[in-house]
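[Solved] Which block belongs to which protein?

Original post:
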Amino acid sequence: MNDRNPSPPALDEEPKGSSLASSLREEIIEDMRELRRFRRRLIFLAQFAFWVSLGLFFAGAIVAMKETGWDFGKRWQVVYLMFPGVIAAFIITSAVRSVFRRDGESESHWQAIVDRIKDD
C-alpha cells in the first residue's frame, strides 16, 4: 500500500481527539440520566414503604385496641403492638436520607466533570 496517501477513515470510525471528549460527555450525561431514573424509583419505593409502615402503625393500634377490649387504660399494649411500625418508619427514613445524600454527592461529582470537559 501507499503510506503517503492513507485511506480516509470509514464512516463508522470516529476520529480520535475531540471525539473522545464528546463520547465521554455523552457517557457522563447518560450516567446522570440513570441517576435521575434511580432517584425516581427510590422516591416511589420510599413513598410505598412509608405507607406500608404507616399501615403497620395503625394496624398495630387497631389490633392492640381489640386485644384490650377497647380499654384505653391498657396503653402499654397499644404502644407495644405499634412499635414495629414506628421502627420500620425510622429505618426507611434513615436509609432514604443516606441514599439521597450519596446520590447528590455523586451527581455533583459528575456535573463537575461535565463542566471541566465543556471548558476544554
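(Second protein starts here: sequence line, then its C-alpha cells.)
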Amino acid sequence: MLSFPRPAADREVSGKVFYHVVAEHGWLALRLTPGNGSRGFSSSSSHKRQQSRTATVNAVVAEIEETAAASGLVPNSRKGSAFLDATFINHDEVDHLHQPSLLTFDPRIQIFAVPAAATKIETWNHFLQVYRYPSLDPSTSDWRALDPRPPLPSWLTVFRLYANSHDLWATAIMYSPENRRDESILWVPHRWSSRPSAHSSRK
C-alpha cells in the first residue's frame, strides 16, 4: 500500500491526511508453483481469506487516519472515509489482476489500470469508476502535459512508459508535494532491462 500525504487544503476538504493506494492485488492471493521448468501461478486463497485480507487493508487505512487525526493534522470535526482511495493495476495477467481479490473491495474505490486490464475489469460490473493509464509519448518534454490526464488529485498522477511504440512494461507514479521537488516511483513487474536508447522519465 502507498499512502501519499495530502496538501493542507485537500485535508480540509476530504478530512483525510493521506491518499491511500493499493497496487497489484494478484500477489495478495496467489502463490508460485513450479512445474516443467517454468513458473506458473495458482490461486491458493479462499474467498473468506481474501475478504480477511481486504479487511486488514481497510483496518490499516483506518488506523493511519485515526493516528493522524489524533495528532491534529485534520480538523476534529472532519471524518474522512476509512476506505482506500484507489488501486493501480499495472498488468492484465492473473498474477497482477486477480478478480476474486479485487471483488472483495468496495465498488466506490477508483480503479486505474493499463488499458487491457481496465477492459477486463469493466466486464465484471463491480467498480463504479474504472480509468485507463495514459501513455507518455517519448517526444513529450514534460510529463505534466499528459492528455488526457487521469482523474487523480492534481498533485498525483500515473502513466505508462513507451519508447518507439514499444511498451516498456513500466508504470510511473508522480507525486508533487507542496513546496518540494517532484517525487517518482517507477513500477516494473518482475525484472526489466532496457537498452540505452530506451525512454527515460523527464522532469
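Accepted answer:
You had them paired correctly. Confirming on the second one: The longest helix spans residues 47-70.
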